[in-house]
Amino acid sequence: MSSGTSDVLVIGGGVIGLVTAWRAAQRGLATAVVDPEPGGGAARVAAGMLAAVTELHYGEETLLALNLESARRYPGFAAEVTELTGHDLGYRRCGTLQVALDADDRAHLRELHALQERCGLESEWLSGRECRRLEPMLSPVVRGGLRVDGDHQIDPRRLAAALVVACERSGVVFHRAWAERLDVVRGRAAGVTTADGTELRAGQVVLAAGSLSGRLAGVPEALLPPVRPVKGQVLRLAVPRAYAPFLSRTVRAIVRGGHVYLVPRENGELVVGATSEELGWDTTVTAGGVYELLRDAHELVPGITELPLTETRAGLRPGSPDNAPLLGPSGLEGLVLATGHYRNGVLLTPVTGDVLARLLADGELPEEARPFTPQRFGAVLQEQSV
Ligand code: GLY
Asked: Which of 155, 236, 315, 329 falls 20 to 30 Å from 46 in CA-CA distance?
């Protein structure tokens, strides 16, 4: 059964697939998305920190450049989405405070500060007292922190819902189905077959299926993106109006060597995350996961245990071997990758849409995406594997 041909078919309707489809459609390409539930995916769970500076890890300096570029595009991107859709994205330019709890945590944070400074990033060291002046709900035991005014936040659920509307307004067609298999015809990606046997055909196919990207049937074994699921458990609490403002900015913390973050939204939601677990496809919310998050958040902000706990959820980050995304030609003609965004999918949404649309429309991968081609993992198509 055949149903429709497009210039571009995007597999995956999470924020990365949606932004790619929207931007491709804006460039005049007839574009379709295949996903049983567009607007779902890891963004349903993510906190939405736009944290190029405070999410920096050793050895990720190349990724930092892409993260900063996407952060730079965020104001224009958010304004454009809101203007087109009328949706408020919960984009808050509130800054971030990154704090340390005990002496070891403070030593660790000092090292992170030195790394941030070596990378030329704006980050100011504060005493514990100065941290509490900014955020009075912080525990008296906080030993010091970093004020990073450039790390902001967005509500990923609102972003995903708005991108669905942006796609619809731009003429993107949605096929609400599972892409069961990539179809390869004469050595070229030709489309997908969905779970009900429908064949969707396209000139170019984009694999943007998050953590599922690494196991789509039909992709030649040697070219399957090395993407794996990394579980994150996240809590949502509600700050009653009488308690507001509970926190005025995102607070990230190192708590006895572990990491926790608290993301306060303007509507009173407080997101607390996240565990990081290599447990395959498991998305169970566990007592241990909830306990650890609440324990660390409580040490940091004791008043948190007064708040109603409204939601517990686990999602799967699409992890890659170097923690950076795979953007660009897959090695199979007609198949392009936009996956492996790991901890930075929401942050990297604007730049991913831009570079993918340019590649799909003009055949050229922009400079800023070139360090992130899938070929860096040595994917080479052997003739016999097609
Ligand atoms: N970027 C936050 C997380 O992955 O938990």
From this structure: 329
Assigned architecture for domain 2-44+158-227+321-385: 3-Layer(bba) Sandwich (3.50)
Q: Is 271 in the pocket of ligand 1 (CB under 6 A)?
A: no
User: Would you list the DSSP string of 172-206?
Assistant: -EEE-S-EEEEEEETTEEEEEEETTS-EEEEEEEE
Instruction: Give me the long-range contacts of 284-291 (CB less than 8 A, separation at least 24).
Output: 284/314, 285/233, 285/312, 285/313, 285/314, 286/233, 289/233, 289/314, 290/233, 290/235
Judge if the beta carbon of residue 159 lies within 6 A of ligand 1. Answer: no
Is the C-beta atom of 232 inside 6 A of ligand 1? yes
Nearest C-alpha neighbor of 372 from the set 313, 315, 322, 319: 322
Q: 273 C-alpha to center of ligand 1: Å? A: 7
d(Cα 184, Cα 205) in Å, to the nearest integer? 11
- Number of other CB atoms surrounding residue 184 within 10 Å: 20
Q: Quote the crossing angle between the two packed helices 156-169 and 61-85, to the nearest 10°.
A: 60
Residue 383 pLDDT exceeds 70: no
C-beta of 273 in contact with ligand 1 (< 6 A): yes
Picking from 336, 340, 337, 338, the residue whose alpha carbon sits closest to that of residue 317 is 340
**Radius of gyration of the chain from its Cα atoms, rounded to whole angstroms:** 21
Q: What's the rounded Cα separation, in Å, for the pair 115 and 39?
A: 36
pLDDT in tens, 209-240: 999 999 999 999 999 999 999 999 999 999 99
Other C-beta atoms closer than 10 Å to the C-beta of 335 total 24
Q: Which sequence spans correspond to the domains of the chain?
A: 2-44+158-227+321-385, 96-149+229-319
- The confidence score (pLDDT) of residue 344 equals 97
Task: State the pLDDT confidence band at 2, using cuts at 50, 70 and 90.
Answer: low
**Residues for the chain: how many in total?**
386
Alpha-carbon gap, residue 99 to 188, rounded angstroms: 51
- Could you identify the atom of ligand 1 that is nearest to the CA of residue 49? 1
CA nearest ligand 1 atom 5, residue: 274
Q: What is the pTM of this model?
A: 0.96
For the segment(s) 96-149+229-319, the CATH number from 3.40.50.1110, 3.50.50.60, 3.10.100.10, 3.30.9.10 is: 3.30.9.10
